Amino acid sequence: MYHPQVGDPLEALDTPVMLVDLDLMENNIASLMARFRERRVLVRPHLKTVKSPELARVLLAAGASDGCVAKVSEAEVMVQGGIEDLLITTEIVGKPKLARLVTLVQRNPRIKVVVDK
Predict the structure, then answer these.
(1) Closest residue by Cα to residue 69 from 55, 54, 90
(2) What is the Cβ-side half-sphere exposure of residue 46, based on CA atoms within 13 angstroms?
(3) CA 22 – CA 6 distance, rounded (Å)
């Protein structure tokens, strides 16, 4: 599987690719999290946006309290990447997804799921 690393030469990258100015990103995250801390706001960012356990860890290290994802598949990626406390924000529908959720929760009991009754 293709796994580019920080510092890989541009010629080695396959497209499409996301390029990030790490210093700028880290400064923006630090500034944002400082504002939330000043207001005593806990932040549980939606990780479907970053789609990356590595970036999720940056947010957690900066002070995010945990993370949200929209789907079981996104939770699987995050758990595989070491992100443990997740809230799945959409209902889980269908036996295959429920089976995957059960397996995921058995491996990581800190998974939470929004339900609608």
Answers:
(1) 90
(2) 6
(3) 10
Q: Is residue 2 part of a domain?
A: no
Q: Whole domain around residue 95: which residue ranges?
A: 10-113
Residue spans of alpha helices (H) in 11-94: 22-38, 53-61, 72-80
Question: Residue 41 and residue 56: Cα distance in Å, rounded?
Answer: 18
pLDDT tens sequence across 33-66: 999 999 999 999 999 888 889 999 999 999 998 9
Phi, psi of 49 (to 5 degrees): -75, -45
Q: How many domains does the chain have?
A: 1
User: For 58-117, how does the pLDDT look when each residue is reduced to its tens digit (9 = 90+)?
Assistant: 999 999 989 999 999 999 999 999 998 999 999 999 999 999 999 999 999 999 999 887
Rounded Cα distance, 27 and 5, in Å: 21
**CATH code for the domain in which residue 100 is found:** 3.20.20.10
Domain contains 34 = yes
Helix 22-38, helix 53-61: angle, nearest 10: 40
